Protein 1
Amino acid sequence: MEMILKKLQDAVYEGDEIESENLAREALSGNIAPQVVVDEGLRPALARLGDEFEKGEIALPELVFAGDAAVKVTKIIEKALSAGEKLNIKGIFAIGTIQGDIHAIGKDLVSAMMRAAGFQVIDLGVDVSLDEFMAVIDKVDAVGISSFISLSISHVEETVKQLKNRNKNLKVIIGGAAVTPNLAEKWGVLFGIDAFSAARIIDEALKNGG
Amino acid sequence: MNNLRVEGVLTDAQKEKIHRSAVSLLESLGFLCNHPQILESFHQAGCTLGDEMSKPKSARVVKFSEEIIADALDKAPSEFTLYPYVPGCKPLKWGSEGMHIGISGGMMTWDLQTGKYRDAELRDFPPACRVIDACENFDAILGYPFYHANDLATKEEIHEITYMSTFMEATTMLHTGKPHIRIYLTSTKDELDDALKLYQIAAGGREAFRKKPNGAIMASPTSPLSLIGCEEGEALDWADWVWAAIQEGVPLPVAPCGIMGATAPVSVSGTIVQNVAEFLALIVAIETANPGHPIAFGDFSGSMDMLTGEKATHRPESLLVHLGSSEMARYYNKPSLWELGSAESPLADAQVAWERTQSYLTAFLSGKVDVVMSGGGMGFLRSFDMREVVIENEIISRIKHMVKGINFDEESIPLDQMIEAGFGATGASFLKTVHTKKYYKSEQWKRSSLTSALNADKWIDKGQKSLLDRSAERVQEILEKHEPDIPEGYQKEIRAFLQDVLDREKVDKDEARKIMDKTYYQ
C-alpha cells in the first residue's frame, strides 16, 4: 500500500498525468480508501511542490503540470466514492477574469497555486459575466475575480455585491492590476497582491471563518 | 567608417523556415478578431471568415493564404517618418537611417526631496519631460513618463473620469517636442478622440497630420493571434485603436506582445514565428483598409519569469527574440521596432545599468532595428526615476561611440608624427602633437560629469559622491537651465483644447484651474 501511494506522490510531483491516473486506479482497486489516496498519495506531493516553489527550487511549469495531474487523480477518486461519501478536501475555489477583460495569465497562475495548495479549482475562463459567477456560487467555498482593465472595475464591484448578497459568508478574493487593497476593503472582500499569496489568504480565511 | 556590427542570428534558410511556419499557422489556425470593420477588411483581402463565436462576442476566425499575405507585404511601405513639431528635434526615420531610441515610464516617481518613491501626479510630468527633452540620446517618447496621475484620480477612481490620459499626453507634449508613440491604455472613446486631436493640433490640422505625422500608435495583438475590440459599453481595446489609426493615417508599428512560456511558445524560434504570424495578419487588415499605410514590424514580446509570472523584456532570451524579429523585418524589407519597456530592477541601481546596457548594446550591434523603445520605466513599469534617465543617456552615449567603429581616414594613422615623436624611453609624447589636438574629440568618447574619472584618493577627497549623487546634480542642472523649445502658439492651442476637455467633462472651475496649473513647469 505504501509503495503505490509513494509512486503516486512521485507521479503527481512529476506532473505525469497518465502515470498518476494509472496509479490512482491501481490504489483504489487495491482497496485503499479514497480519502487515504488523497491524504497519502496526493497531498504530500502538493505540499512538497508548494514548499519547493516557495524556496525557488522549482518553477511555474512544474506547478502547473502537477496541478493538472492532481485534477485528473481527484476526478478518478471522486468516481470511486460511494453514495453520500464526500472527500475531505481543503475547499472548492472558482475563479474567472471579469467581464470585458480577456487577460488569462494571472487567473491561470492563481489556479495553479490553488491546486498545488490542495483546493479543487473551477476555472470559469475569461470575460466571465455576473451570471456565470452566480451559477457556481452554491458549489464553492471561495471565489476569485481577476481584473486587469481598470474600466472593468464596475463589473467587479457588481459581481462582488451580488455574490455577497447571495451568500454573505462566501470568501471572495480579488486581484490583478486594476484592483487595489483599498477597493477590497471597501467592498469587504480579500485582496491578493499576486498569484502566490491567494492560496494562503483563502486557506487562512476558510480556516478562520469557514 | 566601418560600423561595428555582429552577424545576424538567423540564416537565410532559417528566415525562410520562419516565414513558412508563420504562413502555415495563419492558413491552418488563423487569427481571431471581433472588430466589424477589421473583419470586413480581412474579407475584402480574400481571407475566409469562420462562424461567429459567442465569446469573445462576434469573434470570427480569419484564415489566410500565401497570396493574400504577399499582397499586403507589397502594399506596405518600407519606410516612413515621424516629423517633429518643434524646432531642433530630429525626424524619426523608420527604415532608412540608423537607430533611434525612445523612452517610456512607470507609475511611481522617485521623489528627489524625500528620497522615496511615491505615486506620480500630473505636476511630475513637466520636470520628467524636461529631463527627457534635454537628453540628446533619446529621440522619442513612448506614451508618457508616467502611466497614472494620482492627483487627477486615484487608481480606484480611474474609471470615473475620462480625461486622465488626455492630460497626461498633452502635458508631455507641452514639455518635450520629441515624437510620440502612443500606446493603448484602457480608455474611452473620448480619450481616443482626444489623443488623435492632440496629434492633429501639433501637426497643424487633420490633413497636415496625414501628410506629416508626428506620432504613431502601437498596434499590439492579444497574443496569441487575436485582435479584439470592445463590446458595447466596455472599455476600448486594441482593435478600436488600430481602426481609428487606420482612419486617421496614424502610423501603426505592429508589436506582438507574447510572453514566452505563457502567451507565446517558450522557445525563441517559436515566439519569433508567432510574432511574424501576428505581424502578417495585422498588415493584411491595415493595408487592405488603407493601402500604403505606414507600418513597422515591432516586437513587445518577453520572457515570463517562471518564479513570479512577470514579463521580462530585457532577458537574454527576450533579446534573441527581438533580434530574430528585426531580422525578419529586414527580410520583408519593413521597418522594425523593439518595445523593451521596463527594466526588471525597481530602482536606479547596478541591475538597471546591466539590463539596459545589454539591451542597447545588442540592438546597436545588430544594426537591424530602427527604433528601440527601452528607457525609463523600471520594476515592471511601476517606477520611474529622473536620475536613471540621465544615467541611461550616458550609457547610450558610450555605446554609440563604440559602434561607430574605427576611423580609417587619410590622417587617422599619423606615421610622420609617430616617427617624429620617437621612443617612449626617450620622452616621446603625443599630447602636444597636432594630430592629438585635431582628433581627440572624435576619437575619444566624451564623458559627462556622471562618469567619475577620479582615482579613489581624489574621489574621497572630493566628497565621495556616488553615481546617484552625481545624477541627481545633473537632473537639478537640467531643471534649472533647460527650456524645451515648444512654440508659444502651439502651447496656447493645446491648453485651449485642454480647457475644452475640462468643460466637456463639467469639471468644477476651481478644480479645473488647479489641474491646468499643473500642466506648467513650476
Protein 2
Amino acid sequence: MNAEGGFDRLIYERVRLGIMSALAMNDELTFNELKALFNASDGNLGAHARKLEEAGYVECTKSFEARRPKTIYRITGIGRKALLRYLEHIEAVIKATRRA
Amino acid sequence: MQSDFPIPIETRALGTLAYIRRSIDSSASMAVPGMAGIVMGVVGLLASVLSSFPHWAAHWPRIWMCAGGVASLVGSALMAREAAQSGHARYLGPVRKFMLCLCPALFAGGVLTVVLWRAHLEGLLPGTWLLLYGCAVLSASTVTIASTMRLLCTMGALFVTLGLFAFVLPAASHMAILGLGFGVLHVVFGYLVGNSDHAA
C-alpha cells in the first residue's frame, strides 16, 4: 500500500487525485473522457492510470467499440477507501492548522 | 518560477480540496453556454413583438409554439457546439443527466398544450408554459457546473413565479409576461451565465 503514516503519496499527485475524484462520482469513465477532463496527453494519462491500477485503486477493462479500442476505468473498494482516507487526512490538517 | 515564500500548509490543503471539488464537478456536471440563453431570449422577444401586432394577435399560440421549436433547436445546437469545443463531445454522462432532468417537465408542457388548446382554454397556456419550463430549468440546474447552478436555479424560480402570476393576471398581460420570461429572463441570465463562464 502506498501510504506513509496515513498520507498516501500515490493519490497526492494532481492528475491521479483528479482521476480518483472523478471516478468516485461516476460508475465508470473511459480513457478519452478522462483525457478530456484533465487535458492530459495519452502517454501522461496512461502512465498515471497504470500506477493507480497497479496499486489496486482502479480497475481497467479494455474492449472494442466500432473496431476502435475502448478503455473503461472504475474505482475499486480499496481505491475508494484510500481516497476517503486522503480526504480525512486533508481535513485533519486544516482543522489542526486552524486550531493552532 | 517558484516563489521564495513558503506556502502555508492550510492553503495547500484547501487548494487540494478545491481541486478535488473541481474534478468531481467537471466530471459529473454540464457547462451551459450563456450564448444559448441569449439567442433563445432573442427568439422569445421576437415572438413577443410578433404576437403583439393586432394583425397577428389571434395567432399568438402558433407564434409562440414556433418560437419554442426554433429556440429549442438553436439552444441544443449551441450546447452541442460548446461540448465539441471543450473536447467533451464523447462525454455523454452529464448531457444525459441534464436531458433526463429537463425533459419530463417539457413533455408535460407539450401534453398540456395539446389538451388545453383542444379544450379552447388557450388563456391557461402562458401560465402552464412558464411554470413547467421553470420546473424543467430548476431540475436541470442541479446537474450543471457550480458556477452556473445558482444562476440557472434562480432563473427557473423566476419562471415559476411568472407562471403563477400568469394564472391570476388578466389575459391582456399574458404577452408581456411571456416576453418577460422567455425573452428578457433568457437574455439577462444568458449574459450572466456567459460572464460566469469567463470568470471561472
